Amino acid sequence: MSILKNILVTGANGQLGMEFRSLADQYPRFRFLFVTKEQLPINDTAAIDHYFSSNNIDYCINCAAYTAVDKAETENETAFEINGYAAGSLAAICKKQHTTFIHFSTDYVFNGEAKVPYKETDETDPVNSYGASKLLGEQEALKNNPATIIIRTSWVYSSFGKNFVKTMLRLMNEKESISVVSDQLGCPTYANDLAAAVMEIISKNDKPMPGIYNYCNNGVISWYEFALAIKDISGSACKVNPINTEQYPTPAKRPAYSTLDTTKITETFHLNIPYWKDSLEKCIALIKQQS
Questions:
Q1: What is the pLDDT of residue 218?
Q2: Is 190 an active-site residue?
Q3: Which residues contact 96 (CB under 8 A, 6 or more apart)?
Q4: Cα(24)–Cα(26) distance, rounded to whole angstroms?
Q5: In the chain, at which end, N or C, are there fewer CB atoms within 10 A of the end residue's CB?
């Protein structure tokens, strides 16, 4: 009988961490260890070191992150500590313990001035503190542990936690009309699809090829088009109006075009990535079941 492999999932109460929880029963070959930021803060190096020494961790999936994009402009020390240096420390401990480290980054490491989808090798140039903190995490992780797997993703949503889809559903239920930015383009990512992709990579590859990969659902849309789809799928009567970025100022600048090219991850690991609207329909159906 094969020995169970241990998977540590940090930040286990976040939307991506919760999606790993929802998938755990489908992978009986693995023993999952789910820890929240309160149980195991990734910026507490001593606690992390002790936890790894006490448990035989085969894979560490780091879902812990500072994700408040606008707040990061004023709380950049915290953002850089969690997203940057803590990720680097976690990577170093994984190297010492011979643990495969999987870390998540963002499309916001790019400046959004491209005209074609970003490849993993394209030059990074974040336009806000959140993006800069996540870029630092990539750099620190790869410096401390070259065997790290980094997955850049974008516009993440889920039936768990706070995200664009759930916010739109709430606003559409409360208001007769809403306005949504139409001149920022990107790729939505259903967190369940992302978690399932990671589990497919782990379950089919004993030692997955390290490096940086892009993952998002197929298709490119604006936030406005995303909101229209949410309205249509949910059957809302709310009117959705398109506006420009200038009409909706935010503390943190957003990249105008942050589409990711997913060729590398699909070809390396033979993944089939779902179309964004199909995944959105699944998520909204789940949210309706939960309400």
A1: 98
A2: no
A3: 52
A4: 5
A5: N
pLDDT digits (tens, 9 = 90+) for 8-44: 999 999 999 999 999 999 999 999 999 999 999 999 9
Domain parsing of the chain, residue ranges: 5-162+190-216+260-273
Q: How far apart are CA 123 and CA 125, in angstroms?
A: 7
Whether the CA torsion 70, 76, 80, 81 is positive or negative: it is negative
Give the Å distances, CA to CA, from 249 to 47, 70, 109. 40, 11, 20
Choose the catalytic residue: 66, 130, 190, 257.
Answer: 130
This prediction has a pTM of 0.97
Domain 5-162+190-216+260-273, what architecture?
A: 3-Layer(aba) Sandwich (3.40)
The pLDDT tens digits for 243-289 are 999 999 999 999 999 999 999 999 999 999 999 999 999 999 999 99
Amino acid at site 282: K
